[in-house]
Structure formats: C-alpha cells, structure tokens
Records
---
Amino acid sequence: MADDEELYDEFGNYIGPELDTSDEEEDEPQMDEDDIDDRSATPEPDDVEGMDVEGGTAMNEIVLHEDKEHYPSANEVYGDNVHTNVIDEDAQALEEPIIAPTKVKNFTVVGGSSSSSGAASSSTSKPMTFNVDTQYSLSLMDTAPHLNRGVAIVGHLHCGKTSLVDLLVEEACVEADYSKTGALLAHEGGGPRFCDILKAEQERQMSIKSTPVTLAMPDTRGKNYPITVVDCPGHVNFHDESVAAMRAADGVVVVVDAVEGIMMHTEMVIAHAMSEGLDITLVINKIDRLIVELKLPPSDAYYKLQHTVDSVNTYIRSKNPNHKLLTPDRGNVCFASSHHGYMFSTTSFAQRYYDHCDTSKTPKLSAEDFGKRLWGDAFLDPTTRKFKKSAKNCSTKGVARTFIEFILNPLYKIYSACLGETPKNCGAVLRGVNVFLKSEQLKQSARPLIRAACQAFFGKSTGFVDMLVNHVRSPVESARDKVGRVYTGELGGAIGQAMLECDSEGPLMIHLIKQYSSSDGETFSSFGRIYSGSVKVGQNVRVLGEGYSEDDDEDAAFAQVSNVLVPHARFATGVTRLKAGNWVMLEGVDGSISKTATITEVGEAADEARIFAPLNFYIAGGEPAMKLAVEPLNPAELPKMVDGLRKIGKSYPMSRNKVEESGEHVLFGCGELYLDCIMHDLRNMYSGIEIKVSDPVVSFCETVVETSSVKCFAETPNKKNKLTVISEPLEERLGFAIERGEVDLDRPTKVVGEYFEREFGWDKLSARSVWCFGPGETGSNILLDDTLPSEVDKGTLGSVKGSLMQGFKWACREGPLCEEPVRGCKVKLLDATLAQMPIMRGGGQIIPTMRRAVYSSFLTASPKLMEPIYRLQIQCPTDITDAVFPLLSKRRGHIVKDEPKAGSTFSVMKAYIPVIESFGFETDLRTFTQGQAMVFSALDHYALVPGNPLDSSIVLHPLEPSPVGHLAREFLVKTRRRKGLSDDVSVFKYFDEGVKESLMDN
Ligand SMILES: Nc1nc2c(ncn2[C@@H]2O[C@H](COP(=O)(O)OP(=O)(O)OP(=O)(O)O)[C@@H](O)[C@H]2O)c(=O)[nH]1
Ligand SMILES: [Mg+2]
C-alpha cells in the first residue's frame, strides 16, 4: 500500500517509473513454460472425459491443439454403412441442388434408356412380331437383293404419308403386337402415328424427321418382297429430309390428297425425284374425303381422281416430255384411304374381285388384263359381257365406266350403309357387295365399321407392293444409273465395278445419308445404303466425310461398327451382317460425320475409294436463306452450345452454322418452322442450356448491274506485280445453269467452250477462257482470262493462276459491301504484269491483291444488294381471297396467280414476298382469316433490293420504316453494324492511286 502511494500523486495520476508498453506483451502476456505444461499435459479430469486420445495416450502426454478431437466422427456416430459428406458452406452455387435429381432424357415416344439409342434398346426387347418370319425376310435380303425395293414416301403437308406407312406396318405385323407398341390401332379411334417417333412430332401433329421402315410384304400373287420405305415430312421447310431420303432410294411414292390435288411441295419433290433419276409412282390418298366431305357423286369423284392423275402427269411432262406416264391401268397409281385402312391398285382389285366372284362368268380375262380395263374409257356391256370404249357402243343405256361400276359404286354403298343404316340393314347392304362382317363388328361406331368393311372389300395393300415391284427398279437393276449419278470416283476400278454389280463380295461401300439421334440426344445412328460388300458388327471401317478428296484426307476417320440394324420405325432388328443392295442403320460410326459420309473398308484396297456426292438442295433454293444469331445466356456454357450446334448440323441436313468474325454464332435454316424446331432441339435435346437468340435475319447477296466504269488495277505490296480487272453482270440464265451443276469445268476446254458458245452465244475466245466459278464449285460468279498473248506471257500467268483464282473466290465469298456472298458477277482479268522471279509473285502477294482488284472493279460497276424472295402458295376458301391482297402488299409482296382448285371449295394463290418481310406473315394471315388460310413458302430467287446501298446521303431514322428507295441502304447499314463493321463502306481503301485518279477524271 505504501508502495502504491509513492507511485500515484494526490490526484491519482501515475507518477512512477516509465512502463514498458510493447504490443507483444499486452496481447500475449508471456507465460512460463511450466504454465503451458500445466494446461495441456495435465487437464482437469472433467475435460478428459469423452475425448478420444489416440492409442490411449497417457494423461500427461502433450497433444497439440490441432490434433485434439472434441467431437466423435460421423463414422462413429452413424456407422460404416452410412456415407457422409462434409461440405463447406457456400462452396456450391445457391441454385445448384446438393443432390441433383437423376435426369432421364427421352425425346422419343420409345426407348427411355439414357445410355443406348432408342432403336438399339428396343431392338433387344423386340416389341413386335411380323407376319412374315424375320429370319426368312433377313435371308431374302441377304440372298436376293433383286427382290429388294427402296422408296421414299414423299408429298405435301398432311396428305397422309405417315398414316399410309402406319397402314403398311399394321398389315405386316401381328395385330396384338402392333397395338402393344403404343400406337393405337386406327379402328380404336386412331392415335399417335406409329412412324412419328419424336415427342415433338406428336405434339406438333406433323412429321419433322424422315423415318425408315423395312418390312417384308406380299404382292398380289403372295410372293414376299423386302421393302424399305422412308416416310418423309411433308412441310416445305423440311424438304431437305425428302432430298436426303431420295438420295438413298431407287424410287419415290408421291402421295397426293384426293381433294387438295398437287400442291407446292408435291411439285418440289417430283422435280427433285426427276433430277435424281428416280422411278416415280403415285398414291392418291384420302379418297374417303370425296365421298364423306365433298359428297361428290361417283362419276364426279372419278373425274376428280382423273384430274389429279392428269395434273401430276402434266407437271412431269413439263419437266421432261418423254417421261413415263402415271396411270392406274399401268399399275403405277394406287388409291387409298389410310384413315379407313385400305389401299388398292386396279390390278389388286381385279384379283380380289376374281377371288370372290363367280369365276365361271369371267373365265377368259386374266386378273391383270381386267385390272387394265378398270380405268379410263372402259365400259362393260352387260349383255355381251364385252368391254367397249364408249357408253354409246354398249347395247344398254346408262352404262358407267368400269372404275365407277366395279369400284366406286360398291364403295359408295359401303360408306352410305355404314354411315346411315341400322346394323341389321347395314349387314344386308354389305352382303350385297360381298362383304360379310360379324354381328359385333356391325355394332361398332362408324370409323371402325367402315374400316372393317373396306378392308374386307379391298383386302390388304398388295397393290402397293405390286406397284413397287413392277415400277421401281431393284438395287441391282438401278446400280449403274444410281452409282453413275452419286459416286464421284472412277467406275473402272475394282470398287466402281463392285458397286455397278451390287456385289456383296466386293469392297465395302456404304453411303450414309442421314443421322438419327438416340432417344436421349447423345449419340447418333446413321442410315444409308450399301452399294457393295457387306458390313458386320465389330468391323473396323474408314469414314470419309464430305470434305475428303484424293489430295486432302483430313476429313477421314477410323471407326468401329458397334451395331448393324434393320430399321422398323419405333424399333429395329439387330443383325450380325448385312449385304450390298440393302438399306442399313449403323451405330458407332457417327463420331466424325457432319452431314453425309462414305464408309469404306480399312486397308490399301480402299485407297482408291472416293466419296459419294453431298446432297444437292438446289430446288429448295440451294442455300438456307434465314439466319439466327445464338449465344448462351451464361457465357461459360459456350462449349455446350457449340457441341449442340454440331449435333444440330448432323440432325438437320440443310442447316448450317457459322462463326462470324465478331465471334457471333449464326444458324442458317430455310424457314421459321425449321429454325423453331432447331432451337427446340438445341435448347432441350442437344445442349440443355438457356440460349439467347437474335431476331431472325436473312442472307443478302451482292451483285453488280453495270460494267466497271474504269479498268481497275492493283499492285502487289512489293510493287512487282500489277493486275487489271473489270466486272460486269453475268447472264441470269447462265448463273442458274452453274448453280444447278449443269456446267462442268472439268471437261476439256474445247467442250466447255462449245457449251458456252452454243448455249449462251459467247464468242470463241471468251468461251475458252473461263477459269473458274466462285465462291464454290457451283457459285454463280465467273472468272475469265481476257489477257492477250501479245501482252502477257501465258506461261508466267499460268504459274499464278491458282493464286488468282483463290483471290477471286475469296472476294466472291465475302463481298465489299457488307461481307455477304457475291452473286451473278463476271470478272475479267484484262492484264497482268508479273515479276520475273517466282519468289516475287507468291500467293502471299497475289491472292490479296487479286481480291482487292476484284473489289475495286466491283465497286465501280454499280454494286447493288440482292435479297432472297420466297415463292408462296396460299390456300384459302374462295370467298376470302380478297382479304389476302392487302396483307401481301403491306409486306412488298405480290400475287401472280389466283385460281380455284378444281373440284374443291378452296382457291390456291401463288405469290412472291421478300424473305425479310415474311417473318410473322403466316401468323398474320391466320389471324386475319380466322385460321382459314394456309401458306407455304420456299426460296425462289434473289432480287435486287430497291435503292443504292452506297448512297450515304440517306439518313436512317430509328424505329421508323424506311421508304422503299432507302431499303438497300438500310439493309447495308444494319448488316454492317451487326457484323461489327463501320456504317460506311470505305470505298477508297480498295483503290490504287491510279484508279482513284481515273475515277476522279470520270
Ligand atoms: N379423311 C382422311 N384423313 C386422313 C387420311 N389419312 C390421314 N388423314 C389425316 O390427315 C392428317 C395427317 O395425317 P398424317 O399421316 O400425319 O399425314 P402426313 O402426310 O404424314 O403429314 P406430314 O408428315 O406432317 O406432312 C391426320 O389428321 C390424319 O388423321 C385419310 O385417308 N382420310
Ligand atoms: Mg408424316
């Protein structure tokens, strides 16, 4: 206490010696070592309780703080059988579930297994049994390729193609099995179409993808034929699926709605089938509509059917005046109502008639001959029992045509009895036309009753099989024609010969034309046709892509065939081997394929193999004209989107995607529905991420309308070479011919020259100086060598020809206005001063200089923008056609034809509309006409956009429609902005000083 007093004054202030105030001491008061020992080594007995001291550590042993265990481990608490996770707080994103639910992706109405393809997984469960034993039909396919038939079922939207194939499947299968597959039998009220496998197809009630089905079916004589039919979608947007199917097929079955007749897509598929050299057959479907909907009398129904057959023939003859005619009496036309389950040809009906009637009355005529007399001007005189060409020649009055007498009249009786009579009377009427039904069948509702009665009357669809057997060539017969058309290699070698003979012992050659994704969208099976050799499960093969050529084998890969399948729509039969002359679904080879592919054997013998030509869509416009820019909502998911885009490319034959210089991913498609389906698949099926899309835009083209005002020259950076060119417009007809692939520059110069002289009236000199087309092999721009031998050394020029062509093609690929492709431009090389030393005239000098020279010649030749134009077909009731005019004119469209459809209540209009104005037109039209009008559109041509794209005096006002004269400028500026380019084309950047001067002088 006394000490304390000395340390403080009377006011309590400290006055003692200075204190040591180091932080260290304050924060961590020093402790004796003994203290530490006391605390850690000799804890209170209470603390020790419950502690797990390893190996029963002695009480006084030192345990470091970090080694202490205060709580029992999870394992001790829950036991060995419980798996525990200790997760740090916030380590996982908030929206990410700790235990993610198992996702089972299944986009088809079959399958459901997430690991294997729908086709393969269901092939193991084998859900259906065929009437013809599978082993027997496989052995037929193996040993008798001449019995095989492969056709594409094509036609306009909703003309009943899928129902027709369903009918074939239903007939080929044991009924109980067919109903088990999930497709309700039509007589049970119809249901999901069996051959529309995707859920999206069922939801949209339309086919989106083609579906191959192989069935063994008997013809009228009872002989079985393995038939492969590919059910194609009917919407014009999915024309590419029909194109792909036709590449593999030997023939087409064109399906036409009996009421609608020939429509836009019908014309497109017929034209394409003819360009592919396929055999054409016809099915007129939905003939029940003539009776039930239009309520036509039998004679009018006959004229309506005849009109449909005639219009198909007229269209075919307009393309090729020598083409074989389609007529029911020849057997290449069938009639059907897939809704009511029957399909017949006149011959199959004749056979059926003979089977049921008293043959003693008609002994002299074979069923085939009788069938021939069941169409056209054939009248059976009831008294003499002889066929006459006119009703007037018959001894009795009012004799009807045989088709009406024998087929339509009984059919009308069946319909009226089933729809209007009591079961008892109905039974009596039906017995009158030789149809005997059980009493429970007679009590059914209208549709199953009609179905049962018609099936009893017409029997099975053997007429269809007859039609294919007699009018479509087998793979063996068609090999020479088909291989000659689609194979790009020589036919003289071992591979060529084997394919021509359809030799199953020869080297393996398969053309894969279409990829089908598995039910979970992860893997693809590839459908194609075996041209020679045989393919086995486990076989190692070489897959040649579309980019493969003799000089560039980058697009070739090795793969192992994991499964060989025979497709049957919702399931497939796995086989160990399949031989030439068959259509096959392969698994395990899709890895490197982007569109189509050629499969060859591995080994030296296959080195001579070349690819089968890629698909050609020129009737659909060649290139898709609509595009969408896509980007993932979360930028980190870009790789997923890129992978999804790759799969989209596989799944949609015509779609393309491209990365613009700005890094933007652009998807190309041929219509709104097409792009909508692509976006659905991309988002849900192939990437599973959220994707942002831009407003749709269209692909423009650039062209010239005059000849360059000056000779444009450009000097290479080293000043040693100078190239002079001019541009001028190309004849439109020639442009189309090149695009259709009619001009082949690989032929000798003389032959090519003669072609230009003869067809386009060119002079001899220019005709022989065509160097190349651009940007691609079938691009509608031409490069001509117009240099004079007296001025330019042709030898030196020849040495830089490749570089000049590359520069030209580059310029054509991305034009100077807004980097869109150039179209319809003829570039003439007038002069070339070239360095003597080869090193001075290398590609690095020449290629960009040529591009610059072409650009400058292009810009001095009144460059213009071109836009794609759709051809429209609008189908609507006749009384509302006037309402459509203002809708079209508001969108710069115009109608070129408007005529009522014969024998129906609606009109069909033909119109043109710029693609860029067509967005939302369909919705507009439907809203405006209360859904009574339907519109189909396909790319038709490119047309000049009104206005001068380079007129910088035009001021564009945002959110205001530009006057028509400003459109070219508007499109140019908007396209450039989108691509990250400056608003104005810096014209002078492409001109050399001399050219600028001469331009100023002009
Ligand atoms: N009245 C009648 N309707 C039919 C007939 N066949 C099919 N339909 C109906 O026509 C619609 C289209 O049938 P689908 O078989 O899907 O036609 P599709 O040609 O495959 O259609 P897409 O492939 O989408 O072009 C369905 O509503 C069918 O019920 C028929 O013979 N008569
Ligand atoms: Mg369909």
---
Amino acid sequence: MAAKMTNLPKYITMESVRQVLKMADLIPVIEKAMGDFSKGEEGGVVQPVRTVVPVKEHNGVLFVMPGYSTTSGALVTKLVTRFRDRDKTCVAGPRSTVCYFDHTNGDLKSIMDGEVITSMRTAAASAVATKYLASKESKILCILGAGEQAGSHYQALHQICNFQEVRVWSRTISRAQKFAAEYKSTVCETAEEAAKDADVIVTVTMSTKPILEHSWVKPGAHVNCVGACRPDWQELSSELMQKSVVYVDSREAAMKESGDVLISKAEVYAEIGDLVNGTKEASRDKTTVFKSLGMAVEDVVSAKLVYDKYVQQNGE
Ligand SMILES: NC(=O)c1ccc[n+]([C@@H]2O[C@H](COP(=O)([O-])OP(=O)(O)OC[C@H]3O[C@@H](n4cnc5c(N)ncnc54)[C@H](OP(=O)(O)O)[C@@H]3O)[C@@H](O)[C@H]2O)c1
C-alpha cells in the first residue's frame, strides 16, 4: 500500500513575507517574546547559543540559530550564510532562511525567507525599547546609517512616536540621500549634526569604532544601538555607555558579544524584558541606551506570525 502523502512544506518568498508581516502586528508579539525570555525557565523560551560553521576554503560561514517558544507554540531554526569574495572586500549575502516546524510533531511546515524577518524583528525590538524608554513627547528621530535596518527602524519607530522631524546620516552621503528619497527625512553631513537635540537616536551601521559621542546626545534622549555585534566592535563611545542607563535584550549575550558593553565596562541595568514584566524600572527621564544583539526567540515568534497570516490568506 502506498504511503500516505503528507503536505510539502510551504515555501514563503521574501515578497510574501513582506506582504503578510506588518509592523503593527509584530511589535506586540516581539514585546511578549522579550518578556518571556527575561522570565527565565518560567517564560518557556529555549534558545541555545548559535552554531557557527566556518567554510574556510571559500571564505564563508554558516550560522545555525534554533529556538523554541512554548508559550507561542513555535519551533524554528534560522540558517544564515555569509560568504566573501577572495579579496575579502565584497560580501555576498548574508542570506537568511527560516525553517518553521510543527512544534507538536516536528513536521517541517514551511521554509521562508529570513531577510525581511530579521530586518523587521530587529526594528520591532528597538520599538519596544523606545516605547518604554523614550520621552512620550519625542519629536526628533536621528538615524545613523542608511541601509536595510535604517529603513525598518524608520517604519517601526513611527509606530511608537509621533516624530515631527527625522534626520539621517551615513558614511557615504549618497546612501543617505537615497534613503531620504524613500523615507521622508533630512540628510545631515555629520553624525553630530544629525544627533543634535534628537529625542531618539538609532545607530544601524557596520562601523567597528564609535560613531556617536556622549557630548552630542541630548540629556534624557534614548539611543537604540543595533550594530557592533562583536566583542571588539563599538558604535557608541565608552563615555556615552558609562553615563547612560544601559538596557539589553539578553544580559548573557551582551556580556559575551557586545563590544559596546565589554570595552566600556558599562553596567548593564536590565533587560528590556524586565521592563515588559514590570520587574525593573524604565528610566524614561535619564539618557538610556538599548544595546541590541538580536535573539532567536524574535525569529521564532515572527516566523509563526508569518506562517499563520500566510495560511489565513492562502489556505492550508
Ligand atoms: N541587533 C540585531 O539584532 C541586528 C540584526 C541585524 C543586523 N544588525 C546589525 O545592524 C547593522 C546594520 O545592518 P544593515 O542590514 O542595515 O546593513 P547595511 O544595509 O549594509 O547598511 C550598513 C550601513 O552602515 C554604514 N557603514 C558601513 N561601514 C561603516 C563604517 N565603517 N562606519 C560607518 N558607517 C558604516 C553603511 O554606509 P556606507 O554606504 O558608507 O557603507 C550603511 O549606511 C549591522 O551592524 C548589522 O550587523 C543587528
């Protein structure tokens, strides 16, 4: 007798992810996931350290990032490859794919693009931090960097604050100009000019050295620091880190991976999830930094949202 045919996993393209995943739906989902993560075992988040597979002969790396949320009922692995050309100047990728499983029996339900998910979930996490830490009267947004994350942060932070002005700076001015043509903003020639009097600042660059100084930041402003994901990289000056109240997504990851935290030796006050859970204070009136490194659980809950919406619109 022929074996019963099972449904093949659905392939959800980048365009489809973009179509079904809406920032307004995603932010509360990420907020809950950050809270669950910070509850420890009780929050039901299983998020092992990512596996890194070097492909030395071809200047490549494969990252494997699994995660499970019992409260959301979602089991996911994100796979990212990053390959460089032989002269190491030109980066191919990163390319990111998410495998979404049925958490009750392990069936692979979907393979979906991970680029849009990464971009949107990262910005949604910053939006959650901004919701708790920025002044409620925030009017000026400053974005340092003008790539993929700059665009998603523009969209996410507008869900939280009613900005009257957005300023953008990028190392290459033409990139900032291209950004400003797509997202309503003013191009600044220097990061200092962009940061002046801003209520909310986002750093979304590939810089390995500080691009934002303490003296440029208005007292009481909130900074979302999204780049510098390695222990020897910094986006913020040590003085800015030391003189701010510092929040992170994962304290454990920050103490291992964040140069902004490790080099400055700044004290980490709390995780954003602690604010969601009401167990730590949100210092809205002080200068605050959210140091983001990204967490697998953010991919997990985002992939579930994508899958559920996709099935809702297209059928099982
Ligand atoms: N925390 C998280 O969860 C998370 C998730 C995803 C990404 N990230 C990080 O977010 C950052 C931005 O990612 P993305 O996808 O937006 O990158 P992207 O699209 O490549 O944009 C990078 C931006 O950084 C600028 N830049 C590059 N090198 C620089 C340098 N040495 N000094 C100053 N600016 C520089 C680029 O300007 P030019 O045009 O001059 O090169 C561009 O404006 C990266 O550090 C990435 O690792 C974090």
